[in-house]
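This section describes the prediction task in plain terms. A model, or a person checking by hand, is given the sequence of a single protein chain and must write out its three-dimensional structure as a string of tokens. No templates, partner chains or ligands are provided. The sample shown here is typical of the held-out split.
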Amino acid sequence: MEKLSILRECVSKLEDSLKLEEITVDRAVFGLFFSGVKLSTGQGGLCFTPVKEIPEAVCCPSSAKAMPLSGRLRGRPVRAYLEDIFCENILRRTLGIAVLNALSTAVWEKSPSQDYEILMGRDAFDELDLSRYPKTVLVGALVPMLKRLLASSSDFRVMEQDPRTLKERELPYYLPPERANECVPDADLLVITGVTILNDTLPGLLEMAKPGAEILLVGPTAGMLPDALFSRGVTMLGGISVTKPDELLDIISEGGSGYHFFGKSAERTLIRKRQRSRFCGESVWPGS
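The expected answer:
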């Protein structure tokens, strides 16, 4: 399995669609919960800030090593950020994915896809009828989804790197990530955090998924061109579209979260794959 294959495919598609050499980054921000960028073309993009994966950031000298480009991010070519996606430095990779997500928005604005639809202001969790799925696996302690699963008395398991993020009533459903093969192959519904793109654990999970499973990838990291994801079995993406980049970057630079920017400078976004009907070639939605 090629490392970061999904991201490599996405970058390749961007290169085919945009004149990347003409685009730079106007602003770049690391926030407590989100990191983001604004492009010279006006689009904004987000990525989850992987705070727990930055062991170097404990003092000034080691933090400087963790992000050596601080003070020199503005005006940097997007190609340099895209190359950073494939380096070992987690912070540089984070901004690289934020740039990738912003560039994906530029592609959609230039040429809307006929293979999937982007629905603004839609919460991907609201699209799921949990009664349709006998077994569910949640990858990442996604609080809204955990609440829904507990309220519905669903048969589910939750995999999370840090079990301390789970509440006492959630712990009976916990399964360590290294035991994914015990539950993922039987899941009718997989809800996966977009952080798995950043740490490259997503391909292994998708390979384990059974054919026909509903697979939702969700989070600020999951705002990219979805073709490589859909070809590997993902059926829906729940991401974040930036509508007012400067306002959003101001908010996240002050430790803001979704409560502070949804409906103001960003919107929840649902990206759903189309299926072709056998009749007359028209497009229909899965399950319709």
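For orientation: The longest strand covers residues 266-273.
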